[in-house]
Design brief:
The protein is mainly beta and 120 residues long. It starts with a strand and ends with a strand.
Length: 120
């Protein structure tokens, strides 16, 4: 079983940048498809970005394409989400999650989340 811990959230002005990190322990990150999700107050959780085992061809939500970049460093057991040109509507709790399967995903493992707040 893998354990996930997110970090890097905070308060930033619109147009600014943040980089989130998700550190894995317990099992090697290379065993998992990884995803970043977010949930804003009063809204359903949504997928932001997904990256496969090798890091090739990440998948992004339309709302973040061109602004966010997901990457992974398997030897460091860490996944990243670089967020640029942040908007107030990006404000949410951001979670990383792990799935052992693709394309039929089952994100069974989740971190505790990190708050991102974008001020206008």
């Amino acid at each position: 079983q893998v354990e996930l811990v997110e970090s890097g959230g905070g308060l930033v002005q619109a147009g600014g940048s943040l980089r989130l990190s998700c550190a894995a322990s317990g099992r090697a990150l290379s065993n998992y498809v990884m995803g970043w999700f977010r949930q804003a107050p009063g809204k359903e959780r949504e997928s932001v970005a997904i990256i496969l085992w090798t890091g090739a061809t990440p998948i992004y939500a339309d709302s973040v394409k061109g602004r966010f970049t997901i990457s992974r460093d398997n030897p460091k057991n860490t996944v990243y989400l670089q967020m640029n040109s942040l908007k107030p509507e990006d404000t949410a709790v951001y979670y990383c999650a792990a799935s052992t399967s693709w394309p039929s995903v089952n994100f069974a493992y989740w971190g505790q989340g990190t708050q991102v707040t974008v001020s206008s």
